[in-house]
Amino acid sequence: MGPGEFGGSAALVVFLFGHFVTVVFSIKDCYTRVDGRIVYEGINNVADFGQPCQAWSSQDGRTHNYCRAPRAGDLQPWCFVRADTGNLIQARCDVEHCTECYTVTGSDYRGTQSKPSSNESSTEECVSWTDESGGKRFNTKAHPDDRSGLGDHNYCRNPWPEGRPSPWCYTGKTPASHKQCLIPNCKVPGYLGCVTETETAPLLWNVVRTAYFSQLTIAHCVTYCRDHGTQYAGFRNGNQCICIAGPRDVFRSLPEVTDCNKKCAGDSRHFCGGTNSTALFDTRMGQCGGWRYGVYGTIHSPNFPSDYPNGEICSWSIMGPENHVLRLHFAMYDIADSEDYVAVWDNSTRRRVLLTPSKNGYVVDSNHAGLHFVADSAKNGPGFSLVFEAVKKCPKPDILNGKADADSFLPGQFATVECDPGFRVFGPAKVMCEDDGTFKNLPECLSENSTLPTPVSFSNNKTTDASIVSTTSHHLSTDSSQVSTTSTRDQGTTEVPQTTVKRPRPRTQGPAKTSTFIATTTESIRTSSARSTTSRPFSTTERHHTTELRTTQSAEHSKPDSSSGSSQEAEDATSTVVIGVVVAIVLILVIGLLIYISCAVLAAKRARQASLENGQAENADAEVNVPLKDFGEESNTNDEDDVQTGKDAVLGEL
After folding, report:
1. Could you tell me which residue ranges the Kringle domain spans (predicted)?
2. Are residues 180 and 251 in the same domain?
3. Of 22, 260, 297, 579, which has the fewest Cβ atoms less than 10 A away?
4. Are residues 435 and 349 in the same domain?
5. Low-confidence ranges of the chain (pLDDT < 50)
């Protein structure tokens, strides 16, 4: 695996992850709270009264005009707008908290947090709801149905909304071991959280008005503060209503707590703050009518979370960004009277549509819609929570040799692809328009008489010996005939039996025509009868599905299939990283083993050479150390014998 291949795979993973995050935030444009402060990275750039936001200045030279919450004490995202006098003023944006809950007490929470604290370092765990020890009132045996969300798990739930202000769980064996769960993403839209008060309320908040009500309800206090022109309504001790313009110190963090557990004096189903904590609400919650500017938001029935009043008529105007359409769906719907209804005025069709709960909701083919709620005087009920979101339309897909059945498509709609005469669909005939304004896995229109090779699967970042491919027969089929190619590894040629079916020449768009060859080392294709060089043309689109096989005397590398999806590429990229690590470890071990063997061989060689040198030295010493006197004595003895022999010879002659 080369550095370029690894870098490409890693870049692909980063691109896919970045693309996924972008899509998610473009669909659900909301803020979160991290370490006591607001975090918003969305695209809303309009204040809650419709004024365009002014651009922020940044040190790196980049500018934008999206709503943000740059200070630790900000309660909601905001931006600067230009007033009629020309001065810049601060204005909040219509951006809500990201949430999984649409009830005030979180009884609809179905998440997976299993600790009282949202801090990952916390070691305190919830026990399973199947535990019946200690006489616990809430368990799966006492509540066998799943309406309250209990089951064989230990996730935070609120099966007792009349007695607990938020999801909770048991942490031990006794009923007294129950604890509230601090879940950042479980707050009904309009509820900003429970804020602790280390100081008295007038020192913490810019208080406009304070009132005490013997029959205090959330709806009562929210309406009271809205009428007095404040953006926030605070609750304390179950009977105190505080109309707040904002925090005094916007640079001080406001951490959330879970002790807003005082029941409202006028409605025991809800909770109105604590002894030393303030439950904070947005005064737009439960408002009858108004303007809503944003990418994602919630509209509640009037007087929410209390029952809506009889004889009420409310109208809202919803405006989303340019080049977007609006999708509406109910998060909560409980209208008791059949004569009461919610309707939307669709500007694109110029007609009114009654809205009811549905899986996909209703999409208005415009970035502007009017919402209406009408209640008669006979009966009332809890009401509704309607979510609106701005999404993009899908343009007509551009399909070569084919077309779709409409010029544009709303999110959730399906486009049916029809091919021109002589072509057929390869891939899904129907594709859905996604929320980001695109189609996934579009099909292609290819010639009916085109023959495509059977796809050969090669993993990314792997080389394949072409000779391996040449030993396998590839079958190319059409509706009326079959053509098989058989390659011989030794000769490097490909033989294609000639068929009796005449193949029409497929059509292509534009002047360019392309031909695809199954090439061999001899760069020729021999038929079994005529042995003549043949070629079969393909349309431009068919090149995408045709594998070009080239066999050479030295095995070439085969490229991965370019038509594999992004998910396969991501999986292959992960496999590549794992394979790279394994290969690196194996190489290290092999290199270490080779070094060890080399050292051992070298040591043995040196030992042998030393041994040989020692043996030669000993032999040399044995030859050199022979006593010279031995040679002398033997020589003298021989000389004396010769002299004596000579004397005897002379005497004999005499």
Report:
1. 40-98, 100-186
2. no
3. 22
4. no
5. 1-27, 453, 455-566, 617, 619-639, 643, 645-647, 649-654
**Tell me, what's the pLDDT at 341?**
94
CB 31 within 8 A of CB 42: yes
Identify the bridge partners of residue 326 per DSSP, sorted by sequence position.
364, 390
**Same structural domain, 123 and 229:** no
Closest CA to 92 of 298, 195, 219, 230: 230
Whether residue 614 is contained in a domain is answered as no
- Judge whether 341 and 376 are in contact, CB under 8 Å: no
Instruction: Find out whether 292 and 371 touch, Cβ atoms under 8 Å.
Output: no
| Domain assignment of residue 419, yes or no | yes
**Residues 571 and 468 both lie in one domain:** yes
Q: How far is CA 371 from CA 51, 210, 301, 316, 519, in A?
A: 21, 34, 11, 5, 65
In a domain, residue 204? The reply is: yes
| Ramachandran angles phi, psi of 261, nearest 5° | -115, 20
How far is it, in rounded angstroms, from Cα 643 to Cα 654? 17
The pLDDT score that the predictor gives to residue 144 is 85
pLDDT at 570: 55
Claim to verify: residue 158 and residue 207 sit in the same structural domain: no
Residues in the chain, how many?
654
Contacts with 648 (C-beta within 8 Å, 6 or more apart), sequence order = none
- Residue 110 identity: R
Cα(33)–Cα(168) distance, integer angstroms: 20
Q: State which of 162, 186, 210 marks the end of a domain.
A: 186
Tokens representing 572?
């292959």
Q: Is 568 helix (H, G, I), strand (E, B) or coil?
A: helix
Q: Does residue 423 share a domain with residue 384?
A: no
User: Is the distance from CB of 566 to CB of 13 less than 8 angstroms?
Assistant: no
Task: Write the CATH number for 71.
Answer: 2.40.20.10
Count of structural domains, the chain: 6
What are the phi and psi torsion angles at 633 (to 5°)?
A: -65, -45
Report the SS3 class of residue 345: strand
| Domain end call among 373, 391, 409 | 391
Q: How high is the pLDDT of residue 529?
A: 37
pLDDT at 604: 81
Q: Which of 514, 521, 516, 519 is nearest to 491 (CA)?
A: 521
Question: What was the pLDDT predicted at 545?
Answer: 37
CATH code at 435?
2.10.70.10
pLDDT value for 299: 96
Q: Tokens for 305?
A: 């979370």
Backbone Cα Rg of the chain: 43
Asked if 214 and 169 sit in the same domain, the reply is: no
Report the DSSP beta bridge partners of residue 227: none
User: Which string of b and e fits 259-273 if b means at least 16 CB within 10 Å?
Assistant: ebbbbbbbbeebbbb
pLDDT of residue 571: 60
Residue 568 lies in a domain: yes
Q: Are residues 217 and 278 in the same domain?
A: yes
Query: At 419, is the secondary structure helix, strand, or coil?
Result: strand
With H, G, I as helix, E, B as strand and everything else as coil, classify residue 326.
strand
Which structural domain, as residue segments, surrounds residue 530?
451-581
